[in-house]
Amino acid sequence: MYENYYGLTSKPFQLTPDPSFFFASKWHRRAMSYLQYGLSQAEGFIVITGDIGTGKTTVANSLLDDMEDDIFAAQIVTPKLTPDELVKMVASKFSIDTTNKTKADLLKDLESFLFQLHKSGKRALLVVDEAQNLPLETIEELRMLSNFQQKGKPLLQSFLLGQEELQPILRAPNMEQFRQRIVASCHLAPLTDSETQEYIEYRLSHAGWEGENLLSDLAYEKIFQFTHGVPRKINTLMDRVLLYGFLEELKSLDENAIENVVKEVSDEMFNPEDKVSTEVVPENSVTDNSVPSSSPAGKAGGQVKDVEYYKAMLTELTDALDDAISHKIKLTRYIDKLLKEKYKTYVRLKSDD
Ligand SMILES: Nc1ncnc2c1ncn2[C@@H]1O[C@H](COP(=O)(O)OP(=O)(O)OP(=O)(O)O)[C@@H](O)[C@H]1O
Ligand SMILES: [Mg+2]
Description:
The structure is a single chain. The chain contains twelve helices and seven strands. The chain is of the alpha/beta class and 353 residues long. The protein folds into three domains: 26-188, P-loop containing nucleotide triphosphate hydrolases (Rossmann fold, 3-Layer(aba) Sandwich), CATH 3.40.50; 192-279, Helicase, Ruva Protein, domain 3 (Orthogonal Bundle); 290-353. The strands form two sheets. Strands 2-3-6-1-7 form a five-stranded parallel sheet, with helices on both faces. The structure holds adenosine-5'-triphosphate and magnesium ion. Adenosine-5'-triphosphate binds next to helix 2 and helix 10. Magnesium ion binds next to helix 2.
C-alpha cells in the first residue's frame, strides 16, 4: 500500500524469512560460517539457538538457498513429535511412501533411501526447526537416525534450530551421547544499535528505496529502544511505521512518528515493560496487565483495582479504535484523490482523441 508512496518495488519488512533479504550481521555471519563448517564435516549435528525472532530460520533458509546440488535437504518444523511420528515425518520428507508402514518398515526404507542417495554421490541433510519443542526421547531418536552409515561414513547429517529452551534440553545429563555428536553450535543474539540501523537501511534499499535518510538518527534510536534489535520486532514495527508515514503523508520519519506507532502497536508486539515511557498509567491501576489483580489488600481493594484495570483497558481500546477509524478515513480520502486524478487523466486523454 505504501510502496508506491515511498518508491519501493516490494515490501521491505515482510515477516517471511526470505534469503534474498539476508543481512549479514556479526552473529548471522558467524552462524552461517558455523553452518558451512558443519556442512563440510558431513556428519553429526549442528545446533543453532537464539531468542525468538532473531533469525534462525532465515539463516537456515539462506544456507539451503545457496547449497550445492549434491545435498538433498529436508526441512521439518516440529510440533511436539513422538519418536515414531518423527521417523514417519522424516521418511515422508525424503519422499518415502509411509502409508500402512510400521516404524521398522520406515527405518528400513529410510536406510535404503540414504544408501541409494550416497551411491549416487549425494548426501542427506535434515533441518529440524523449532527443535525446542522436541521431547528428549525424540531427540534421542534423531541421534539413532544419525547412526545410519556406509563404510564408516554417516549417511545423514542434521541441523537443529531452536529457541533458548533447547540449550537446557541438550545439557541434560542423559543427553551426553547426543552432545558428543554435535560438530558445531552457536547462539544468535539480537542486532546491536548500529546494526539495527544498517539492517533497516539494507532492507529498504533492497526493496528499491533510492532516497536518503528516510529516518532520522533519533528515530533509529527509538526503534532500537523498542525492539532491542530483534529482527522480527524491527520488521513488525517498521511495516507499521511506513504505513503510518504514508497515511500521514510524511516524506521523512522522525522520533515522534516512531513513538506514535509504538503506542499503536505496543500491545500487539511488546511486553508490558517495553511500553513507551510517556504512557499514562492510571492511578491505582495494576502494573501487570496480563491478569486482573487478586491483591492481598482484600476483596474490595482487589475489585477497585480490577475496575480501574478494565477502565484503563477500555480507554486504550477506544483510543486504538479511534486511531483505526482516523486511518481508515485518511486512506479513503487518499484513494478518492487517486481516483479523481485517474478520472481527470482519462477525461484529458479522451478529449485529446
Ligand atoms: N539476518 C537477517 N537478515 C534479514 N532478515 C532477517 C535476518 N534475521 C532475521 N530476519 C527477519 O526477522 C524475522 C524473523 O526471522 P526468523 O523467522 O528467521 O526468526 P527465528 O529466530 O527463526 O524466529 P522463531 O524463534 O520464532 O523461530 C523474519 O522476518 C526475517 O526476515
Ligand atoms: Mg524460526
